[in-house]
Amino acid sequence: MRQGLILLGAAMISISLMGCNSLFTPQADIVERVSDGDTLVLKIANEKKLTVRFACIDAPEIPHSQTEKRSKITQDVNQFTWGVKAKTRVEELIKQTDNRVKLNITDSDRYGRKIAEVRLKDGTFLQQVLLKEGLAKVYRQYLNKCPSRNIVQEAEAQAQQQKIGIWGDGKFIDPWDYRKANK
């Protein structure tokens, strides 16, 4: 009889906890701001901030100085136009989920940023969206550290084939080449 009550109690607890997934899944991180098309700043414990660089991709650059903002050089204007579009798209997507994201941290970089695959609360993979919409390129130099390499390569190939976004712009310079030329 006693053993039966214990089993019954255990069964009742198990059944009641089945509906409480939120008790066992990690809460999404809060995005404080979107720095550019592939970088976020998150709020973490003790009012600290964590800078996160998107794994697997490289988005076009945005202007950082007043000189860059005023530049009339074609390659600057082109790069910054696409960079602002990528940043704006990331902001729109994150806003749809109350500024919350889930990270799969894969590495750290020389600037102290965490490198991560970034998903919205609903599971949407941000890197995949940016690539499909032609707002970023696969960062092949670091593809070996990308758990979702097949997904990102497929998304990029689709945008390239359909000439979406940067793939339809014959003047676009890859972000890594742009940075190298403007050091």
Brief account:
The protein is of the alpha+beta class and 183 residues long. The protein has helices spanning 2-18, 66-70, 74-95, 126-132, 149-162, 175-181; strands at 29-36, 39-43, 49-54, 57-58, 100-108, 114-120, 137-138. The longest helix is centred in the middle third of the chain and has 22 residues, at 74-95.
Can you describe what's shown?
With 183 residues, this protein is α+β, with helices and mostly antiparallel strands. The chain is 39% helix and 21% strand. The protein has helices spanning 2-18, 66-70, 74-95, 126-132, 149-162, 175-181; strands at 29-36, 39-43, 49-54, 57-58, 100-108, 114-120, 137-138. The strands form 2 sheets. A 5-stranded mixed β-barrel has the order 1-2-3-6-5. Strands 4-7 form a two-stranded antiparallel ribbon. The protein is globular and about 45 Å long. It starts with a helix and ends with a helix.
